[in-house]
TrEMBL record:
InterPro entries: BABR_hydratase, CruF, CruF-like. Keywords: Membrane, Transmembrane, Transmembrane helix. It comes from Haladaptatus litoreus. The keyword Transmembrane applies. The chain crosses the membrane at residues 26-44, 56-75, 82-107, 127-147, 159-183, 198-216, 236-263. This is Putative membrane protein.
Amino acid sequence: MDSGGSFVDRREAEAKLSEIIRENRFTIAVVFPLVGALLFVAGHEAWLPAWLAQNPFLIIFGTLVMRSPLVAGLLPEIDRRAGIALVVLALYTYAIEFVGVTTGLPYGEFHYQLELGPMLFGTVPAGLPVFFFPLVLNSYLLCLLLLGPRVNSRAARFIASLAVVLVIDLVLDPAAVALGFWAYDGGGAYYGVPVSNYLGWMLSGTVAVGLVELGFDWRSLRDRLDNCEFMLDDMVSFVILWGAMNAYFGNWVPVAIAVLLFAGLHRIDRFDFAVGQSVRGTPR
């Protein structure tokens, strides 16, 4: 009886969260990243008081809000197997980041210049999964829609998802370096980012995508995407925020890549940027 009641309570909570997301899609997916971009610029230009400029807790709060559509979309799909996969992925994320910061492997020598919230062992952000998980999950979900009939191939899903993860980091890292979130000790040819970073991402991305593939039922995720119109809104936020930041710093290659990501979202009719409404899928 208690078990049944807990199941009902969970479904009610999931439905309520989805309702909140659905009613505030434009605010979450468009307004929040635009405000975030303005705050980043203001902080970078020292137009804000020191305690507010690039405040790590404000960054985490804004990130959590922008992640909320992905969370609400995925919650009904998280069973025991998926939960274990996500726990393992979190532990792996902390481990490889700790190794990366302390040894320079596999990304290259780098260090955090801004503490993004509490730091574990003074080295790795405690909120790291909040920043990392969506890069992988959004890539996987996007590919489930873009691959068409080829989605039935595990190899196609894996290779395409890993490629999108790398593409996303081609947008993220240059802007993060320009903002002073972290820096590579020897710099790098790609807007201050070395090639070794992307070789490292091939390793970390391979493990991460593999865990998502093993942990989730891709067919169930595909059905959920068809019936949850906001599930990829977090990627909309990503394109707006980091595309805008790269444009501000004159990083035009990452801007062009962000535009390509937008084109991918447009192709699958995930978001109407004019009104903040889905043009594909029916609410569930």
